[in-house]
Amino acid sequence: MTELKNNEMERLYAESIHQIEEGSILQGRVIYVKQDGVIVDIGYKSEGFIPSEEFSQEELSKINAGDVIEAYVVDIQDSEGVVILSKEKASKIKAWDLLEAAFQKGTLIEGTICGRIKGGLSVDISNVKAFLPGSQIDMKAVKETDSLIGKTMSFKVLKLNNKRSNIIVSRRAALEEERQKKKLVTLTKLAEGASMEGTVKNITDYGVFVDLGGIDGLLHISDISWGRITHPSEFFAVGDTVEVIVLKYDEEHERVTLGYKQKRPDPWLSIEEKYPVGGKVKGKVVSITDYGAFVELEEGIEGLVHVSEIDWSSRPKHPSKYLSIGETVDAVILKVDKEERRISLSIKQLKPSPWELVSQRYSIGQKITGKIRSITEFGAFVGLPEGVDGLIHISDISWTKHIKHPSEVLKKGQKVDAAVLNIEPEKERIALGIKQISPDPWLKEIPERLKLGDEVRCKVLKSTDFGIFVEIEGEVEGLIYSSEVLRAEEPLKEGDELIARIIKIDAEDRKIGLSMKNVKGDRA
Fold it and tell me: What is the CATH superfamily name and number for domain 106-175?
């Protein structure tokens, strides 16, 4: 019985010796790790040895007794009682086997991009280096390749030469193959009205290209939102996952038109019911222009607050002086145009009208004080504390002087006193007068002080065909009729002074007629 057992052990031992040959690949179990290498039990009379040079420091630190390692038999040294093994050669042989199989069958193989080399990138496939040409990196030109280093990807083997260790791989071919597979799946689902998920591939001024899985669709800018949109980048970024609706599919040309806003009903269909005229709303300022500000009431619905509806000021500032983007505001609806998809809003209508305050605070004849804000040919505008302007007409500046232009007696920024002449809040007007602050001198003072036949000192204002206009004693104007002018060697000019006799006083029409004839005094 003992003899039979020994014979069986010898047979098994002989078989193990016969199975281990130089150049073969086998599996062994780690016994322990030494400084110069790893000792492996390979089921042979002698133990296997893998030099430490074949491991990185990180690999050595992770190897533990009992781990299974695949190795290549380099040399069987029976005399020394050891079998020299190589982990690297085993890896390379297996890698070449995988590469050859992938090349013959046209299947994909995984590798890690490990660096840049002339003309492309270097790829590590199980410790075997392959060349990835620049033209085969992607389906489109790649400007920055450093970001790819260290990434593990799938490749297709284009060329393989074992003797020269020449391997050329393509990521582009792998991507195209993968894209074609996805495309076949996508085409089975593609139909008008279908809801599909895709990835934003590219963004242009006119729309977004979405990869639906092997086939691209165009989401036009007009189909992104029911509301106003300036650029597609306001909604999407490259790489975003989006859910879209297939609006149209041209099977012959493989063109797909997509919609995003169609995922929900058009909010403008029920706009008049939801936003009635006169209703109060709250929204966010999303855009500011020279003519007003756009306020988002809900997604896809925006209203315009015209610059004239922001503030009650008669001279409103730029909208950006009142509002800022992102600010939440309250407004009232002025108009809703369903066909044109427009909503007009007002912010100032929620505040008391300054003209209502003017009508409450001022009465005709009341004296006010204010600064001249602007001057025109017909008068001057005075700013009131309520934020409105009152008009002093040119005819209400002086009782006695003939004023050609308000700037002759008034200046912008000048503080003046005036009387309220008229208030029309419905027309947003208030009339003021400077001359009304004092009594009308034509009613009593002038008729009492200036009499027919009086000789008065005058200053020439201007000459006309029908006479010479003069200023009488610095306060009231009169006319020397052309028939009453004494002709001199030198004609009279503006600013000249003279003595004239009053020959006519019309207090009702506010006119004084003068004559240079029969004057006792001399020409000044």
Answer: Nucleic acid-binding proteins (2.40.50.140)
